[in-house]
Design goal:
Layout lengths: L10 H8 L6 H9 L3 H16 L2 E6 L10 E6 L5 H18 L4 E6 L18 H14 L5 E5 H4 L1 H7 L6 E4 L4 H10 L3 E7 L2 E2 L1
Parallel strand pairs: 1-5, 1-6, 2-3, 3-4, 4-5
Antiparallel strand pairs: 6-7
Helix pairs in contact: 1-3, 2-4, 3-5
Length: about 200
């Protein structure tokens, strides 16, 4: 256990994640209510690297996510409470235990269509901190999903790069060259792997 987290309110949960133990609903609510974003990132990264090592998969020319039933999604940043968001994640995990039907999970922030976003910093939408928190908690709780996916069109390239330390290992989007995407991933200390389809790599 890193001494850095000895005084963290999430110390016991970090210990469980390090041991490969599954967190329950109440633990998920504690994660959602915590402001210890560094501890959340650390736990998410433990699960990420346990499943995919340093690999980051990417696919260009997808605006949001694969239009495939094997990609589960959840909207956040709406009127749903934190407890309701954890309920959704726990139900998805239970469904995955029973069916194994999903390959990846994509949390999608809700953006009002009539909202001018420039300069709002989360007023009427979500903040970068909230985005990272939801991505990290998704990775921690959905331990039976192979991938947590993010869209760089939604997060922006800089926050997308940061998200690779918060559980994300699969990227999709459009408007960026392959060279730029590989450069961004490698600068984050990850190995870039191009995805040719859901589950396929070159």
């Amino acid at each position: 256990m890193p001494s850095l987290f000895a005084n963290s309110e999430l110390f016991d949960l970090i210990d469980k994640v390090e041991k490969g133990e599954r967190l329950d609903h109440d633990a998920g609510v504690r994660l959602m209510n915590s402001q210890d974003i560094l501890a959340l990132g650390t736990m998410a990264n433990i699960v990420r690297e346990r499943k995919n090592g340093h690999q980051t998969f990417y696919r260009i020319d997808q605006s949001t996510h694969d239009t495939n039933l094997r990609d589960a999604t959840m909207l956040y940043g709406t009127v749903k409470s934190r407890e309701e968001q954890i309920d959704i994640l726990c139900r998805l995990r239970e469904q995955q235990d029973q069916t194994g039907e999903f390959l990846s999970f994509t949390p999608l922030s809700s953006v009002p269509k009539d909202k001018e976003l420039e300069g709002t910093m989360g007023v009427g939408t979500t903040t970068g901190l909230e985005d990272l928190k939801v991505l990290a908690i998704s990775r921690i709780l959905l331990d039976n999903f192979d991938h947590i996916k993010a869209s760089w069109n939604q997060l922006g390239l800089k926050l997308t790069q940061v998200s690779l330390g918060f559980g994300v290992d699969d990227l999709a989007g459009s408007g960026v060259t392959k060279h730029a995407m590989i450069h961004m991933i490698q600068k984050a200390g990850r190995a870039a792997v191009e995805r040719t389809g859901l589950g396929g790599t070159q």
